[in-house]
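Appendix B. Chain record.
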Amino acid sequence: TMKEQIHTFGLQPVNFFISKVIQLYEMIVVRHGLMLVGPTGGGKSMNLHVLEETLGSLKDQGIHGFAYEHVKILQLNPKSITMGQMYGEFDPNTMEWRDGIMSTMYRGATVDSPDRKWIVFDGPVDAIWIENMNTVLDDNKK
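Structure tokens predicted for this chain:
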């Protein structure tokens, strides 16, 4: 099924790429958050999308396994907005809290649907925002 999806994207099913997709699947089985890190053009996005389509295809075929569901990806470049826009901020002029894009995305991902939701922060890793995300990626899930 994965090889069919790889062909659908116009790619070749190279063993190294297949092993990376399998490794990503194995990580989502045991973790609730993870990072795909690598150089520009290294195949991170294709890895993610091949796995997304493979899981949906397996679901359509009636094959049962962990996370064999359709996937909806919600994507954001955290470097394109301010920290207040990303996480939310208190407006000192109106004395009101304004939700950030991330909290709005999380709220949207909780909509009752059998599909899995992946919130993807696609952009260069920055020490400041990744430190703030550290609690989200923490194993305690709190």
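Further analysis of this model is presented in Appendix C.
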